[in-house]
Design brief:
The complex is a heterodimer of chains A (123) and B (134). Chain A is mainly α and 123 residues long. Chain A has five helices and no strands. The longest helix of chain A is centred in the middle third of the chain and has 29 residues, at 60-88. The chains are: A mainly alpha (123), B mainly alpha (134).
Chain lengths: 123, 134
Protein backbone atom coordinates (compact mmCIF):
# COMPACT_ATOMS: atom_id res chain seq x y z
CA UNK A 1 0.00 0.00 0.00
CA UNK A 2 1.30 3.50 -0.90
CA UNK A 3 -0.20 6.83 -0.03
CA UNK A 4 -1.70 8.65 -3.05
CA UNK A 5 0.81 11.48 -2.58
CA UNK A 6 3.67 8.99 -2.54
CA UNK A 7 2.41 7.50 -5.82
CA UNK A 8 2.12 10.91 -7.48
CA UNK A 9 5.63 12.01 -6.54
CA UNK A 10 7.14 8.55 -6.92
CA UNK A 11 8.63 8.97 -3.46
CA UNK A 12 9.12 6.58 -0.57
CA UNK A 13 10.65 3.17 -0.43
CA UNK A 14 7.75 1.81 -2.53
CA UNK A 15 7.50 -1.06 -0.12
CA UNK A 16 5.40 -1.88 2.88
CA UNK A 17 5.68 1.03 5.34
CA UNK A 18 2.21 2.49 4.89
CA UNK A 19 0.52 -0.90 4.95
CA UNK A 20 2.42 -1.84 8.13
CA UNK A 21 1.36 1.41 9.82
CA UNK A 22 -2.24 0.96 8.69
CA UNK A 23 -2.54 -2.68 9.78
CA UNK A 24 -1.08 -1.78 13.17
CA UNK A 25 -4.03 0.61 13.61
CA UNK A 26 -6.63 -1.76 12.16
CA UNK A 27 -5.58 -4.57 14.49
CA UNK A 28 -5.35 -2.09 17.40
CA UNK A 29 -8.98 -1.09 16.89
CA UNK A 30 -10.06 -4.73 16.51
CA UNK A 31 -8.14 -5.60 19.67
CA UNK A 32 -10.19 -3.25 21.86
CA UNK A 33 -13.46 -5.27 21.91
CA UNK A 34 -11.63 -8.59 21.46
CA UNK A 35 -9.29 -8.06 24.42
CA UNK A 36 -12.20 -6.92 26.60
CA UNK A 37 -13.99 -10.14 25.62
CA UNK A 38 -10.86 -12.16 26.41
CA UNK A 39 -10.51 -10.56 29.86
CA UNK A 40 -14.16 -11.37 30.62
CA UNK A 41 -13.68 -14.93 29.32
CA UNK A 42 -10.63 -15.48 31.55
CA UNK A 43 -12.33 -13.97 34.62
CA UNK A 44 -15.38 -16.15 34.02
CA UNK A 45 -13.22 -19.28 34.10
CA UNK A 46 -10.97 -18.49 37.07
CA UNK A 47 -10.41 -21.78 38.85
CA UNK A 48 -12.88 -23.57 36.57
CA UNK A 49 -12.46 -27.22 35.63
CA UNK A 50 -11.94 -28.42 32.07
CA UNK A 51 -15.57 -29.47 31.56
CA UNK A 52 -16.81 -25.95 32.35
CA UNK A 53 -14.29 -24.33 30.01
CA UNK A 54 -15.15 -26.83 27.29
CA UNK A 55 -18.89 -26.20 27.62
CA UNK A 56 -18.21 -22.48 27.05
CA UNK A 57 -15.96 -22.98 24.01
CA UNK A 58 -18.57 -25.33 22.48
CA UNK A 59 -20.74 -22.27 21.86
CA UNK A 60 -19.94 -21.17 18.28
CA UNK A 61 -19.89 -17.45 19.11
CA UNK A 62 -17.41 -17.99 21.96
CA UNK A 63 -15.16 -20.15 19.77
CA UNK A 64 -15.27 -17.60 16.94
CA UNK A 65 -14.61 -14.66 19.28
CA UNK A 66 -11.66 -16.53 20.84
CA UNK A 67 -10.19 -17.35 17.41
CA UNK A 68 -10.60 -13.75 16.22
CA UNK A 69 -8.97 -12.48 19.44
CA UNK A 70 -5.86 -14.56 18.94
CA UNK A 71 -5.59 -13.75 15.23
CA UNK A 72 -5.88 -10.00 15.78
CA UNK A 73 -3.66 -9.89 18.88
CA UNK A 74 -0.91 -12.04 17.38
CA UNK A 75 -0.97 -10.07 14.12
CA UNK A 76 -0.67 -6.82 16.12
CA UNK A 77 2.13 -8.36 18.20
CA UNK A 78 4.12 -9.36 15.14
CA UNK A 79 3.83 -5.88 13.62
CA UNK A 80 4.83 -4.24 16.91
CA UNK A 81 7.81 -6.48 17.55
CA UNK A 82 8.94 -5.96 13.94
CA UNK A 83 9.23 -2.20 14.59
CA UNK A 84 11.18 -2.83 17.80
CA UNK A 85 13.57 -5.18 15.98
CA UNK A 86 14.06 -2.73 13.10
CA UNK A 87 14.87 0.01 15.63
CA UNK A 88 17.37 -1.85 17.79
CA UNK A 89 18.78 -4.85 15.95
CA UNK A 90 21.34 -4.17 13.23
CA UNK A 91 23.44 -6.24 10.89
CA UNK A 92 22.87 -9.90 10.19
CA UNK A 93 20.92 -10.49 13.42
CA UNK A 94 18.06 -8.34 12.16
CA UNK A 95 16.85 -10.90 9.64
CA UNK A 96 17.24 -13.69 12.23
CA UNK A 97 15.09 -11.78 14.73
CA UNK A 98 12.49 -10.97 12.08
CA UNK A 99 12.27 -14.66 11.16
CA UNK A 100 11.96 -15.72 14.81
CA UNK A 101 9.25 -13.05 15.23
CA UNK A 102 7.31 -14.49 12.31
CA UNK A 103 7.71 -18.11 13.42
CA UNK A 104 6.87 -17.35 17.07
CA UNK A 105 3.64 -15.47 16.38
CA UNK A 106 2.44 -17.90 13.71
CA UNK A 107 3.24 -20.94 15.88
CA UNK A 108 1.36 -19.44 18.83
CA UNK A 109 -1.58 -18.63 16.57
CA UNK A 110 -1.78 -22.17 15.18
CA UNK A 111 -1.49 -23.60 18.71
CA UNK A 112 -4.28 -21.33 19.96
CA UNK A 113 -6.54 -22.20 17.00
CA UNK A 114 -5.83 -25.91 17.51
CA UNK A 115 -6.78 -25.65 21.20
CA UNK A 116 -9.96 -23.69 20.44
CA UNK A 117 -11.08 -26.15 17.73
CA UNK A 118 -10.16 -29.14 19.85
CA UNK A 119 -12.19 -27.82 22.80
CA UNK A 120 -15.05 -26.76 20.55
CA UNK A 121 -15.42 -30.00 18.59
CA UNK A 122 -13.84 -32.48 21.00
CA UNK A 123 -15.40 -34.66 23.67
CA UNK B 1 26.04 0.35 2.24
CA UNK B 2 26.53 1.35 5.86
CA UNK B 3 30.24 0.46 5.80
CA UNK B 4 31.03 2.95 3.02
CA UNK B 5 30.21 5.99 5.21
CA UNK B 6 32.87 5.87 7.91
CA UNK B 7 33.54 9.62 8.21
CA UNK B 8 32.66 11.26 11.54
CA UNK B 9 29.22 12.74 11.29
CA UNK B 10 27.38 14.63 14.00
CA UNK B 11 25.14 12.36 16.02
CA UNK B 12 21.92 13.28 17.77
CA UNK B 13 22.24 13.16 21.56
CA UNK B 14 21.46 9.80 23.12
CA UNK B 15 18.57 9.20 25.49
CA UNK B 16 20.44 9.86 28.76
CA UNK B 17 21.26 13.43 27.64
CA UNK B 18 17.63 14.46 27.94
CA UNK B 19 15.84 15.30 31.18
CA UNK B 20 13.29 12.50 31.76
CA UNK B 21 9.74 13.68 31.16
CA UNK B 22 6.46 11.89 31.80
CA UNK B 23 5.45 11.77 28.12
CA UNK B 24 8.84 10.32 27.21
CA UNK B 25 8.67 7.70 29.96
CA UNK B 26 5.13 6.79 28.90
CA UNK B 27 6.34 6.26 25.34
CA UNK B 28 9.09 3.92 26.57
CA UNK B 29 6.69 2.10 28.89
CA UNK B 30 4.24 1.64 25.99
CA UNK B 31 6.97 -0.25 24.16
CA UNK B 32 8.04 -2.23 27.23
CA UNK B 33 4.47 -3.27 28.08
CA UNK B 34 4.00 -4.26 24.44
CA UNK B 35 7.01 -6.55 24.63
CA UNK B 36 5.93 -7.96 28.00
CA UNK B 37 2.51 -8.77 26.53
CA UNK B 38 4.21 -10.34 23.50
CA UNK B 39 5.77 -12.96 25.76
CA UNK B 40 2.94 -12.98 28.31
CA UNK B 41 0.48 -14.36 25.78
CA UNK B 42 2.43 -17.63 25.91
CA UNK B 43 0.71 -18.19 29.28
CA UNK B 44 -2.71 -17.75 27.70
CA UNK B 45 -1.99 -20.18 24.86
CA UNK B 46 -0.52 -22.63 27.39
CA UNK B 47 -3.75 -22.38 29.43
CA UNK B 48 -5.92 -23.22 26.39
CA UNK B 49 -3.55 -25.94 25.15
CA UNK B 50 -3.61 -27.55 28.61
CA UNK B 51 -7.41 -27.70 28.45
CA UNK B 52 -7.19 -29.24 24.97
CA UNK B 53 -4.77 -31.90 26.24
CA UNK B 54 -6.42 -33.27 29.40
CA UNK B 55 -8.48 -32.44 32.49
CA UNK B 56 -5.53 -33.23 34.78
CA UNK B 57 -3.12 -30.99 32.89
CA UNK B 58 -5.69 -28.17 32.85
CA UNK B 59 -6.17 -28.56 36.63
CA UNK B 60 -2.38 -28.21 36.98
CA UNK B 61 -2.28 -24.92 35.01
CA UNK B 62 -5.26 -23.63 37.01
CA UNK B 63 -3.36 -24.35 40.24
CA UNK B 64 -0.24 -22.62 38.83
CA UNK B 65 -2.29 -19.47 38.09
CA UNK B 66 -3.99 -19.88 41.47
CA UNK B 67 -0.63 -19.84 43.29
CA UNK B 68 0.38 -16.47 44.75
CA UNK B 69 3.34 -16.27 42.38
CA UNK B 70 1.03 -16.96 39.44
CA UNK B 71 -1.31 -14.26 40.69
CA UNK B 72 1.51 -11.70 40.88
CA UNK B 73 2.38 -12.46 37.25
CA UNK B 74 -1.29 -12.17 36.23
CA UNK B 75 -1.62 -8.90 38.16
CA UNK B 76 1.36 -7.49 36.25
CA UNK B 77 -0.11 -8.86 33.03
CA UNK B 78 -3.41 -7.06 33.76
CA UNK B 79 -1.66 -3.74 34.37
CA UNK B 80 0.57 -4.07 31.27
CA UNK B 81 -2.46 -4.89 29.13
CA UNK B 82 -4.57 -1.99 30.39
CA UNK B 83 -1.67 0.45 30.22
CA UNK B 84 -0.85 -0.58 26.65
CA UNK B 85 -4.50 -0.42 25.60
CA UNK B 86 -4.99 3.06 27.07
CA UNK B 87 -1.71 4.15 25.45
CA UNK B 88 -3.04 2.77 22.18
CA UNK B 89 -6.20 4.85 22.55
CA UNK B 90 -4.01 7.97 22.90
CA UNK B 91 -2.18 7.02 19.72
CA UNK B 92 -5.46 6.48 17.87
CA UNK B 93 -6.56 9.95 19.00
CA UNK B 94 -3.29 11.46 17.70
CA UNK B 95 -3.78 9.56 14.41
CA UNK B 96 -6.93 11.61 13.84
CA UNK B 97 -4.77 14.75 14.03
CA UNK B 98 -6.16 15.86 17.38
CA UNK B 99 -4.82 16.05 20.94
CA UNK B 100 -1.42 17.64 20.26
CA UNK B 101 -1.76 20.70 22.52
CA UNK B 102 1.10 20.38 24.98
CA UNK B 103 -0.94 20.71 28.17
CA UNK B 104 -3.44 18.16 26.81
CA UNK B 105 -0.64 15.73 25.92
CA UNK B 106 0.68 16.04 29.47
CA UNK B 107 -2.78 15.62 30.93
CA UNK B 108 -3.52 12.54 28.78
CA UNK B 109 -0.24 10.93 29.87
CA UNK B 110 -1.20 11.36 33.53
CA UNK B 111 -4.73 10.11 32.86
CA UNK B 112 -3.32 7.05 31.09
CA UNK B 113 -1.05 6.18 34.01
CA UNK B 114 -3.71 6.81 36.66
CA UNK B 115 -6.46 4.93 34.80
CA UNK B 116 -4.22 1.91 34.16
CA UNK B 117 -3.57 1.59 37.91
CA UNK B 118 -7.18 2.33 38.94
CA UNK B 119 -8.68 -0.11 36.40
CA UNK B 120 -6.22 -2.87 37.34
CA UNK B 121 -7.04 -2.51 41.03
CA UNK B 122 -10.78 -2.25 40.28
CA UNK B 123 -10.67 -5.45 38.22
CA UNK B 124 -8.88 -7.41 40.93
CA UNK B 125 -10.97 -5.99 43.75
CA UNK B 126 -14.07 -6.76 41.67
CA UNK B 127 -12.97 -10.37 41.21
CA UNK B 128 -12.31 -10.65 44.95
CA UNK B 129 -15.71 -9.14 45.69
CA UNK B 130 -17.61 -11.54 43.42
CA UNK B 131 -15.68 -14.72 44.19
CA UNK B 132 -14.84 -14.07 47.83
CA UNK B 133 -11.26 -15.08 46.99
CA UNK B 134 -8.63 -14.32 44.38
Amino acid sequence: MKTPLGTVFGLGSARTGTEHWWLQRVTAIANIPLVLFLIAFILWHLGADRATLMASVKHPLIAIALALSFLSILWHMRLGMQVVIEDYVHGRWRIVCLLVNAFFTIALGVAALYAILSLSFGA
Amino acid sequence: MAETHTDQRPLSPHLQIYRPMLTMMMSIVHRITGMALYFGIILLVWWLMAAAISAEYFALTQSVFGHWLGKIVLFGFTWALLHHMLGGLRHLLWDTGHGFKLNLVEWLARLNLALSIILTLALWIGVYWVRGTL
